[in-house]
Amino acid sequence: MSVKIDALRRPLVQPRPTRCFASGPLRPLYSQRLPQRAVALFAIRTLVTDNKQTTPKTKQYSAIVVGAGASGIAVTGSLLDHLGHGSRIAWVDPDFLGGRINACYREVPSNTIAQTFLDYGKGFESFRRAAQAMSEPNGLTKLEALEPKSTCSLHHAGDMLQTLSDGLRRDERVSGLKGAVVKASWAKGLAEWAMTIQGKNSKSPTTHHLVAPLVVYCTGSHPATVKLPTPSTETPKNLGLDDVLKPSVLRTTLPKDRPVTVGVIGASHSAILVLRNLLDLARDSHPQLRVRWFTRHTELKYAQYMDGWILYDNTGLKGLAAEFGRQYLEGDQLAKSGAGEIITRVDCSGGAEQEKAAFLRELPQCDHIVQAVGFTRNELPEMEAEVEFDNTTGGFVDRATGQKVPGLFGAGIAFPEKVTDKAGNVEYAVGFFKFMKFLKRVVPSWVGIDQKPAK
Ligand SMILES: Cc1cc2nc3c(=O)[nH]c(=O)nc-3n(C[C@H](O)[C@H](O)[C@H](O)COP(=O)(O)OP(=O)(O)OC[C@H]3O[C@@H](n4cnc5c(N)ncnc54)[C@H](O)[C@@H]3O)c2cc1C
């Protein structure tokens, strides 16, 4: 799929540096085998302390999963499959509503086919149990009714996530806690993480303390924005990418009865969907809407279906975005298709100076600007160490010492796997089924079942 992570791709203009991690001295690190040792430790403790408060409001778990989007759901499912019957998983999210897919992308066409969502939805034993616990019809059964080889609206994928999320929370080994993890610290003596959670649903926020030897961050990302080289005249107002991906919101945001120009920056999957939404709007109900499309690329990049593998699987256009690109944007199609009456292409190719000149020249013509320049990680809980994600193992490494951080892992759009395709292209694997594939490889080593470290 073609979502871009800002850290993984140079955006159109250079972003201000963002710090994802709290800094400070790192505690000494421990054995690579720690998760296994810690799971064993849990097994002993659980006989005496399972579900009891070790200190007021402090509860002991086998694992804590932070976030309940597509990746948090998959991590919870995978841990249920791998940890023993006596295990307990604390699962923390402010809402348990399926993450960003349901919050922001229900009106977005998918870039993967319905069958891929089904492969995810049935990919763990725990998922199959969770679905059985839910009455029918549900998000999974509705997905089964779709044409499997076709793409679909992401609301179908979102409904499936909701079904799995609700079903997993009914599992007696899972404790769902509504709130946000705000702080994480490693307790050396106990070889476990202590997490502080700010409860969501109360007037005076409650604080919970959980401990576990294994913690997985599935905390997601949000659209990145960059500082634009603005002219001295008034800067155009930013339209949030999330809103422009919702035609129902876009329709009411922009005026119908007067000229309005929207600048769109980028050529990624999201940028092309934004152009598609704006063109539809101009043709349907907003005849005075015009678009300036700022792009560095003279040609769009498409996913190419090879013999058993996909070239540019994570960075090329797919589905309706690819169709739209070919029909309206590629080569001289803007002029030929008539879309050029609405969309004007602004050439930002040729390097930083040319790009800056294009912005200084064209931005004054825009009333609004939409940045589709990648995604940036959501802020992580406060931590004592400054850590870096290892996108081959799913673990974290201390930036100061280069050593592995015990018991801490990540997954999902914020922490994707690094993959190299058959043509040697390096990409970051973002998408429901890709998260699952990564987890199937690495979770056994996280929980100490696999003796070999994940490659
Ligand atoms: C436009 C677009 C189209 C896409 N289309 C497809 C597609 O067709 N097929 C596909 O497979 N993928 C698609 N994707 C990618 C995929 O949907 C996303 O990558 C996926 O939703 C990311 O899931 P996630 O769980 O990593 O993050 P999120 O969905 O963002 O979930 C993160 C969760 O963590 C919670 N959280 C964050 N911080 C904390 C904290 N401190 N404490 C507790 N909770 C916390 C958040 O509230 C949220 O609920 C698309 C993405 C985009 C942007």
From TrEMBL:
<protein>
    <recommendedName>
        <fullName>FAD/NAD(P)-binding domain-containing protein</fullName>
    </recommendedName>
</protein>
<dbReference type="InterPro" id="IPR053275">
    <property type="entry name" value="Agnestin_monoxygenase"/>
</dbReference>
<dbReference type="InterPro" id="IPR036188">
    <property type="entry name" value="FAD/NAD-bd_sf"/>
</dbReference>
